[in-house]
Fold each of these.
Amino acid sequence: MKGLQYKRTIFIFALILIIYFGIVVTVIVSHEKDMFDMSYENARGELELIGSFVQDAIIRYDYASIEQFLTRWGKRHKDIIELKIIAPNNFVIAHFKREPSMYSFSFKKSVSYENRNLATIEMTKDFSSVKESLNHFLVRLISGAILLTVFTGFTLWYSVRRLALIPMEKEIAIRKEAEERFRTLMESAPDALLYVNDKGKVAMANLQAEKLFGYSIADLIGREIEDLMPVRFRSIHKRHRDKYFQAPTARAMGGHGYEPYGLAADGREFPVDISLSPVKTEDGIFVLADIRDITEHKIAERKIKQGYYFQKTISSILQISIENIPFEKQLEGILDEILSMPTIPSLRMGCIFLIEEKPDTLVMKVQRGYPDAIKEACSNVPVGECLCGLSALSGDIVVCDFDERPHESRYKGMTPHSNYCIPIVSGGKVLGVISIIMEKGYKRDKEDDELMLSISKTIAGVIERHMAEKEKQKLHEQLIQVEKLSALGRLTANVAHEIRNPLTSIGGYARRLSKIALEDKEKEYIGVIISEVDRLEKILKSVLTYSRESRLDLKSYKIADIVNEILKTFEIVCYERNIKIEKDFADVPDIVIDKDRIKEVISNIISNAIDFMYGGGILTISIFQEAIKDASYLCIKISDTGIGIPSDKLRLVFEPFFTTKVMERGTGLGLAISKKIVEDHGGFIKVESAVGKGSTFSIYVPYGLKPLNQ
C-alpha cells in the first residue's frame, strides 16, 4: 500500500510540472500571436493612408507629388524596406527601396476610383524589431520557468526522500529478510519448487529444481514455465495457465486430457506430479509449483499393466490359433488383439506381412485401418526396402516417424504417425513382419520391444503350425494325385497297347490302298484315314510318355545355347505371323538337365504362345537365376502378348486332356507332359495370365542335380 502512495505522490508532482509547462507554452504562443496581429494591423493602416494620398494625386494627374510623398514616407518609417506604386499597365509610378531584412513581410493594396483601377501599392516591412522583442520576452519567460522547475524538482526530491525513499528502504530490507526466509524454506524442501508469476515465468527456483531439470538456478529464473515441458504440451498448458490465474486455487496439476511431463536440459522427458499453491503479493499473484519426478512409480505401474495385457494377448492368440477357421481369419484375430492393447500407443492401424514363395518379398496378408493408397503400395514389399523390408532384412525392430527418410511409402493426406515394425522370427529365419502405426513422435521403449518380440514368437509358432498343416495337405494331395496318375498310367498303357496293333494295321492297309487307288475320290478318303491314324499314333505316344516313369539323361549344358537352338526352329513361322522375338538372357551358370526333355518343354510352351498371338505380337524369353526358400533355381520365363487365359481356366491348364485348341484339335497333353518333365527334374512351372494382355510361363529348374557319370 505504501509503495502505491509513493507512486501516486510522484505522479502528482510530475502532473503539476506538465501543467506548468503547458501554461508557459500557451502564454508564449498567445503573446507571439498578439504582437504579429498588431504589426499586421499597423501595416494595413499605413497602406490605407498611402492609398488615399495616391488616389487624390492620380485624379489630379500630379505624379510628381506621388514620388515625393513616397520618398519622404519611406525615409521617415525605418521599418519600410520597399514601397512601389504600379499603374494598371505595369508602369512604375514611384519606387522607394532600402537594404532588405532577414525577417520581412510583404503587403499589397489596389487603389480605385468609380470602379476603375488607378494603381497598385506594394509595401515590404521589416518585422525584425517584433521578432527581437518576442525573443527577449521568451528568454525572460523560459528563465523563470527553469528556475521554477529547479525549485519544484528540489521540493519533489526532498518530499520523496522524506516521505518515500527512507520508508521504502526499510520496506526493501524487510522484504529481503522475508525473501531470504522463503528461500531457506524452498531450499530445505525435498521436492523441486518453482515460484512462477502470472506471465508464466520462473521468479525463483530451489536446488532440487536445478537437479531435476538440469539447468542452473540462474538459467531457470526468467525462463517460461512451458520451456520445462515437452513441446506437445506447451500450447494446451498456456491456455490452462491463463485460465488458472483468473481463479487460482490450491490443487494438483493435470486432469485436462494429459498427464504432466517434465523436459530436462538434455532433452530427457520424465513424468511428474505437480501441486499448485497460489501466493498473493503486492506485485501480483504468484504460484508455487511443487514438482516430483514419478518415473519409478510409472515404471512399476506400467510393468504391472504390461504383464497383465501381455498374458491376456498371448492367451487370446493361442486360443485363436486352435480355432477351426481359415488361416487369414486367424491372422486378422491376432492383429486385432495386438492393436487393442492399451499399453501400446497405436492408432489402431497395422498389418501382418508374411514371406511366402519369394524369399525376398513381404506379402501383406491382413491389415486394419489402412487407406487404399497404402494397401496398394504395400501389398508386396521387397526385403530391404522401406521400414518393413529393413526389419525383415535385419531381423530386428525398426521404429521411424512417417516423415523421416527410411519411410518410403507416402501419399497425399497421410496422417502424422510413427511406424513400429517387429520381425516374426523362428530358428533364425524371418517368417514375416508385424507393422503397427503408432502415435507421431513415439520413442522406442525396451519394455515394448520385449513384449512385442514375445508376441511375435507366439505368432511364429502359429505360422509354422499353419505351414506344417499346409505342407501336410499338399503332400496328401500329391499322394492322391500320384495314385490317380499311377492308376491312369497303367490303364492308358494297357489301352494304348490294345489300340496300337489295330491302328498299325489300319495305317498299313491304308498306305497300300493309296498306291493302288485309281480314282481321286478314293485317294482323298484314303488320305483322311492316314491323317487320322497319324494323329491317333501321336496321341498314343503322348499318353505313353505321360504315363510311364521316365529316366533322365542328365548332363551339364549352357541353357542359352539350348534356347537359341529352339528359337531358330520358330524363326520362319514367327516372321510369317508378324511376331517379334525379344531375348533377355542373364549370365547364369551351366545347368544339369535332360536336354531333349527340357527342349520339349520349352518348344511346347513357345508353340502355344505363337498359336495364341493371332494378329502378331511380341514373344519374350528371359533367363535368370533366382533364390527361392534358400534354394537356387534357373528360371526360363516365356511371355507372349496373345489373347490370354481366362481366370476360371487358368488352374486347369496343366490337367491332362484339357485344351483350348478345339479348332486345332489339340490333345490337351502338351502342358501336362511339360509339367511332369520339369517336376522330374525337381522343379516347377508357374503361369500368369490376363485376358487380352497375354500369358507368362515360368519354368524353374533347380541347380544341384548331378550328371549321370557322377
Amino acid sequence: MTPSTSLSSTASEASPLLPLEPKPSAQNDRRVIRHILVFVTILQMAYSFTAVSMLYVIRQMTCEEHYKTSENAGESAYHPSVDRCNIGEVESASATAITALGTVTTVFAVVNLFYARWTIETYSFRASLIQQACWPVVRLVCQMIAILIGRRWGVLIMCASQALSGLGGPQGYQLVANSYASSLVTSSEETAVFGQLQGCVMIGTALGYVAGGWAGTNITVSSPFQAATALTLLSIAYAVVMIRNEEKSNVSDVPHGDDQDTKNAQNSNWLSPLKVFMPRNVVDQDGKERKYTGLLITGIGIFIGVLATGFNPILLQIYATSAFSFLSEQNGYMMALNSSFRAVFLSFCFPRLVHTGRAWYARKRSSPTGAQIATAPTLNMPIDVVDFDVPQQGAGVYEEPCQPMEAEPGVHFDLVYLCISMLLDTTFTGSIALLRKPWQMYLVVGLLPLAAGSAPVSKGIITEMCEPSQKVDALSAMAILETVGFLCTTTLTGWLFAIFAENGRSYMTFVVEACIGMCAVLCLSLARFPPRGSGQPPNR
C-alpha cells in the first residue's frame, strides 16, 4: 500500500479521488463535542421554557371559550371554586385541543427530520444546527400573538404556528447533533455519546421547566415565550462563534462507507432511511446465506414503546392538573424533577452501566466461543475501500470474503438493557393509575428516569445492527420512527384521556399505556444482532 500512501500525501484536499481526508485530532473532536453539548442544552432550554406554559395557556383559552359562549355565559356563577376550569367539559375540550397541537407538531416534526437530513447532505452540520434554531424564533412570535388574541382563535393560531416546526424543531436539531457527534467518535463510543447528548437535552428541559413554569405563574403568561426567544437567539450566536465549521465534503464521511455508498445515499429519495429496517440477506461463518430481520423487529418494538410512553411528558401534566389541581408552577417543578434526574442518570450513570454491562456480557460469552474466536482471523480483514483492489464493472466477480458487521461481543448487552429499561418504564407508567396524593406524583416522576436509557441505547443498537455506511440513515430512520410513534400516541392517548376524563376515570389512560408497553417488551425480547462473524453477501 506504499504507493497509495505516497499519492495521499501529495494529493490536494479538493481531490475527489481521496477516499478519506485527514481528520482533526481527538482533542479537537472532543472540544467540538463539548460545544455541541452546550448548544443542545441552551436550545433545549428554550424549547422547554414554553412547554408547561403552553399547556396552561391552551387550557385557559379553552376555558374562556367555554364560559363566553351564549349557552355557557351564566355557568361560571355555579362554579365559584378557585379553578373554575376544573370541570369535565373543559378538561375534555382542553385535552382535544392539546391533542390537536401535538398532532400538528408531530406531523411537521416528521417533515423536519427529512429537511434536517437534506441540509446535512447539502450544506454542513454547523449550518444545519444554525438553521434549526432560526425558525423557532418566528414560531415564538406567532405564539405571543396568539396569547394576545386568546379564546378560540388563540388556540387555532397556537396550533397553526407549530407548522413552523417543519423547518426547525427539537427532532431536527437532535438528529443533526447526534449525526455530528457520531462522526467524531469511534463506534464503541457512540452509545455513550448519545447518552450524554440525551442528558444535556434533559438538563435543558429541567431548567426550562423550572424557569418557564415560575415565570408563567409569577410574571405573565407571555414571559416564558419572550425568554425562550432570547435563549434561542443566544444558541444561534453560540453556534456561529464556537462550533467548528464543517466543510460540505466532510459530511459525506459520516457514514464511514465508500464513496459509491455515500453518493447513492445522497441521491436516494427522502424515504430511503426507512429501508434500513427492511430484512436483508447475510452470510454466516459457514458461508450460508440467511434472512436477517433483527432491525425490523427492533424497529417495531421501539415504535410500540414510543406508542406506550411517548406522550407521558404531556400526559403527566394534564393528569396532574386535572386530578390534583396542579398549577403551571407546580407542573414545572414536577417535570423539572423528572428531567434533572434523567440528566444525571444519562450523563453519569448510563455510560458506566453500558460499559460495565458490555464488559460483563463479553466475559460471559468468551468461554463458550473460544473455538470461534480462534478462527476469527479468517474474517479479520481490511474493510476500507482503499485496502481492496475491487475489479471494475464487467471485469469479473468480486470474490473477497464478506465484511463482518459485529463490533464486539459485549454489544449484545444493549438489547438486554433495552428490554429491562422498557419494562421499568411500563411498570412505573402503570403505577400512576394507583396514585391518590399529590406527593405520590412527585415520587413516581422521580423514579421514571431509571428507565431513561431506552432512547440512547436504541440508537446505539440500530447503528450497530446496520452497516457502517448506513449510520446517518439509521439515525434518521430512528428519528422518523420515534416521531411517527409520537404522532400516533398523541392521537390515541389524547383521545383516550378525553373519553376517560368525561367519565371521571382519566387514570385508566395509564393502564392502557402499561398494556401497550408490555407488548413492546415482548417484541424487543425477540430481537437479535446479526450472527457472529456474519456479513453482507459479496455481490449485493
